[in-house]
Structures are given as C-alpha cells and as structure tokens.
Amino acid sequence: MAEETTKFDPKLEEGIAYFEKMLQLTPDDRVTLQFLCVAYEQIGQFDKQRRALVSYAGVLLKEKDFEEAEKLVEKLEKYTEPDARAAVLRIRAAHRPPQSVEPPKEDAAQTSGNKTTTAVYIAIKAEKKLARHLAESKVIDEAAADAIQDRLTALADVPGCFLVSTLSEIEKENTATAEAVCAFLADETGAPPIPLEAFPAVEELSQNLPDSIVRVRGVLPFAQIGNTLLVATLNPFDDALKQQIESAAGTPCRLYIANPRTMETTLDKIFSETALDESATVPAPGGA
C-alpha cells in the first residue's frame, strides 16, 4: 500500500512521537497501540499502521479479547504483506483447536510452488522448536514463546515465498530482546554476529542456493574462504539447516548470526531485483 501525504494537526505528530516512545517501554499496551493504529492512518503512514495493527491484534488475542480483535480484520485485509495475512488467520482461527503443522506429501511431479510450501512447513517446525528452546533457556518468557508459535503456525496458510523466523518475530516486537537472543545464540552455538551490510558479495553468492533456503529460512552466504562458505543465518541452532545448506552448496559452511532487520532488508532487495530482472527478460505477447 502506497504511503500518502495527508494534512493533519501538528500536535498529532507530537502525540505520535510520545506514544512511539511509550511503545518501546510497554510494547503490549492496548491504548498505545490503538492510538498509533488510528494516528498512522490519519497521516498516511500505512506501513507503520500495518505493523501497529499486527501488534495490536497479537495483544488482543493474548488477552483473549476476540470480539475486539475481530474488528481489526477489515483493516488488516487491506494489506497483502505476510504479517498482516497471518494476523487475519490468527484472529479467525482463535476459537479453533490448534492444527498440526505437517508438510504435504511430495510426488514425482512436484511443482516449484509445492516445494516452497514444503519448505515453509519445515521452517515453521524448526522455528517453533527454536522458540520453545529459548523459553526453556529463560531467554524469553513462556507467553512470548506461545505467541511466536501461534504466529508461525498461522503462516502455514499464507501463500507465497517469505521469511519464516523466530528471531525476526522477536525483533518486530522488541529490539532489545532480539539483541539478547542473538547474543545467547552466538554463545550457545559458536556462531559469531556478522554485519551483513558490510559484504557486497551476498547477492552473487546467494544465487548458488535455492530460494526455499535463502528466502524462507533467512540464509545468505557472504564470503568464501578456500572451500568453506561463510553463511549468515537467523537460526544457527538448527543443525538440519546447516546440513541442508552444505548439501545444496556442495561445500562445507560456517554459520554466523545476522541482525534480523538487516537480513529482511537484504532479502527484500535481492528478490525485488530478481523479479525485475526476470520481468525484463520476458518478451511481450506476440513479440519476436
């Protein structure tokens, strides 16, 4: 949804700044989120409104205020981004029993779309395992882990190829907590933090791995030393992911942990440019 410039009371900008600071201190405060949802719409900041709506929906569901959450569906449905779609699904599934997340059975004629779907299912299972591990290790609390697992489960019904990541979900809610999780995973797994933006070869190296690994799991090779591929990831806890990367790349790899926001920005850039390149090479109907 395109951003718009709208005339508004100058005091509204001050109010927004105040409530944004409040949100950093109390990210689950209903009044703060409700104000920002309305205010962002009034000034045409629709990307921020979407994120506020998704957060507000999460708080309402956590508090089991399903009636109020249902009122957000109409606004959320205006957005096509995965987090908004997932929020709608979570609201609608709030009264339903939890569903098992199992990948569909593959056949010999499996399409690219089905492969992506299978990759999403596998990613959801692995990322839910990470969320549970973080809770058991007291890095995040049980309520946060349950909320993350609910959001991840809802992604099973969202079409397309998109990032599935516990660390990314945490970062959207609380940057400080995400930083603590990164530090914990670095210590536990031996995967050092890496400033992904400092390595220009990321896009070229990522072409050697399938989209189902790069886009869905948040995996970006950023350098190669000898025959060892250096790879930024959002889940160094997943041993199966490392094996999958090495199998696809045909070479040993060393995992590093990336900042989730930088990872998402880089992935969006790579895949938006890929889409533009592909559309530029497709001849117009009736062309030579």
Provide a brief overview of the structure.
With 288 residues, this protein is α/β, with parallel strands linked by helices. The protein contains 14 helices and four strands.
How is this structure best described in words?
This protein has 288 residues and is α/β, with parallel strands linked by helices. It has 3 domains: 83 residues, Serine Threonine Protein Phosphatase 5, Tetratricopeptide repeat (Alpha Horseshoe), CATH 1.25.40; 68 residues, no CATH class; 87 residues, GMP Synthetase, Chain A, domain 3 (2-Layer Sandwich), CATH 3.30.300.160. It has 14 helices and 4 strands. The chain has a 4-stranded mixed β-sheet with strand order 1-4-3-2. The chain is globular. The N terminus and C terminus are likely disordered.
Key structural traits:
3 domains, 288 residues, GMP Synthetase, Chain A, domain 3, alpha/beta, globular
